[in-house]
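To whoever picks this up:

The parser on our side crashed when reading a file containing two proteins. I've narrowed it down to the boundary between the first structure block and the second sequence. Both blocks are reproduced below exactly, byte for byte. First block:
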Amino acid sequence: MVDESDSSSEFKKNYWRAMMFQYYVKIVPTMYARADGQTLYTNQFAVTRHQKQVSTLFGDQGLPGLFVIYELAPLMIKYGEKQKSFFHFLTSVCAIVGGVFT
């Protein structure tokens, strides 16, 4: 698995050029609710990166540098964990056994 946020090799390859690196970071707050009542608040991140070579003579292409743009999501994702009862398990077993013998 490749970590897209690690652009050190790209930076080393293009360090002598006038480059513009842009990182767009989207942050989504997330809550995990466990069946035992514990909750965990965390964030999910999505990173998109763009790079381009810019001209130092003309400013119409942008400025060389590293730019990080953050976007905070206005909503929260909630993951819930629920335990099924013993009667649900018993009903599933009866359905499987009934399906095998019919």
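<<boundary where parser fails>>
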Amino acid sequence: MNSSNHPSPTRTERTNPTVPFAYPFPDNPLASALAVSDELSAALALHGIILPSLGPELASCTTSTVHRPLLELGRVNLSTAHRLTTVLTDAADARKAAAARPYTGEDNRTDSGTNR
């Protein structure tokens, strides 16, 4: 199943834990699990991390009248676990540093090649 035709989460949905998660395909728990699995796999790949066993946990997607789909993350070697730990720690440190900076009301991004 190609899950690329579901809407990607917005930046707010990705970074704000108070925004409730909505299944990409509310009436199809397996499709939702596949879509979220694809998103997680792509996000991890940006950091050079591959979880070979990542995918839907089929029983949770198909056997219950109350669907609570789960993902299998699988086993990883120590090198992959270390890389994953480094990425998560670096992201947490960056988030803490950003929260500690005083808000100046200015956008810190640079417009390369643009004159104002």
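After patching the parser it read the second block fine. Strands lie at 55-57, 70-72. Residues 11-75 form one domain.
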